[in-house]
């Protein structure tokens, strides 16, 4: 367990130690993060193509992902709604941020593109698999793992240079409360879904610990439980992001904590522009803190729960 945790946490820590003052270099890091995510998902698609009885396996993948997502969403929304009624947090008190995405379709375009990348990887695997053989899928798994390590270094660097000191994160009680509520309700959903997915209790908890970080959960879960479960984790977490884009504008003024929290780890990056636009700048630090904490929790929790199988 400790070796697995170190393998994932060490790149994050190494990246976090790097202080970047150049805006140009930070932009390059941001682009490299996006490129790494696309590469990982492309390789994951190639690995999926190596499954036997692919059509029936993909049908099972979709059914399992829908089941896990449905249970998780019901519990997340219920817990965050409860929290929203108990905290003094209202959106709209500050001017909204300009130049944010103005339509749900524009906001979701990047997420839908990720699905296309996975589908492209499956197509590549189906075309090249018969020519290259098993070596293609083994190489894809190996490359995905190393790209993940590079991605973790870059993400650690992003976190360090996000302008959010650790002291400010730890003292932001609203962001912490939202993150803890989302995490606990997600883990409960994993426990409930585990027997329905024919998984052990700890594997169910691992599946629920992505908190929206689909590139990480897909690779870590896929490495231990196979590409099918890695695909389930990916689509469960990606669908969270897609629903968040729709949900945030509808509920942020009445249930601000729910709107900020449902996106999980994505509240500090992909769904942040939508939170900015519809909730105002006062919501931004809370969203960043919540997403930051969930991003830090996700890797060790996934690896810890998976290690209990051994």
TrEMBL record:
Record bears the keyword Methyltransferase: no
Keyword vocabulary terms for this entry: Membrane, Transmembrane, Transmembrane helix
Bilayer-spanning residue ranges: 35-54, 66-84, 104-128, 174-199, 211-235, 242-264, 284-306
A Pfam family hit: Lys_export
Protein name, UniProt field: Lysine exporter LysO family protein
């Amino acid at each position: 367990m400790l070796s697995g945790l170190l393998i994932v946490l060490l790149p994050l820590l190494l990246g976090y130690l790097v202080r970047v003052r150049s805006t140009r270099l930070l932009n390059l890091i941001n682009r490299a993060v996006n490129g790494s995510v696309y590469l990982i998902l492309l390789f994951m698609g190639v690995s999926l193509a190596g499954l036997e009885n692919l059509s029936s396996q993909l049908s099972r993948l979709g059914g399992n992902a829908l089941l896990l997502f449905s249970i998780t969403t019901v519990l997340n929304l219920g817990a965050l709604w409860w929290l929203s009624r108990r905290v003094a947090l209202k959106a709209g008190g500050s001017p909204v941020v300009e130049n944010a995405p103005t339509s749900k379709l524009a906001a979701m375009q990047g997420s839908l593109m990720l699905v296309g990348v996975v589908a492209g990887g499956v197509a590549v695997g189906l075309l090249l698999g018969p020519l290259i053989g098993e070596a293609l899928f083994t190489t894809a798994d190996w490359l995905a793992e190393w790209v993940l390590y590079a991605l973790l270094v870059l993400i650690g660097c992003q976190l360090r240079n996000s302008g959010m000191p650790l002291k400010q994160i730890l003292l932001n009680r609203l962001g912490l409360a939202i993150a803890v509520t989302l995490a606990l309700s997600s883990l409960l959903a994993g426990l409930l879904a585990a027997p329905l997915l024919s998984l052990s209790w700890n594997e169910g908890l691992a599946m629920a610990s992505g908190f929206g970080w689909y590139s990480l959960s897909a690779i870590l879960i896929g490495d231990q439980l196979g590409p099918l479960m890695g695909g389930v984790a990916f689509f469960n977490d990606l669908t969270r992001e897609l629903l968040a884009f729709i949900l945030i504008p509808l509920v942020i003024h009445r249930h601000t904590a729910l709107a900020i929290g449902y996106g999980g780890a994505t509240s500090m990056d992909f769904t942040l522009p939508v939170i900015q636009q519809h909730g105002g700048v006062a919501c931004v630090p809370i969203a960043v803190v919540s997403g930051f904490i969930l991003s830090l929790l996700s890797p060790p929790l996934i690896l810890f729960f998976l290690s209990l199988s051994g």
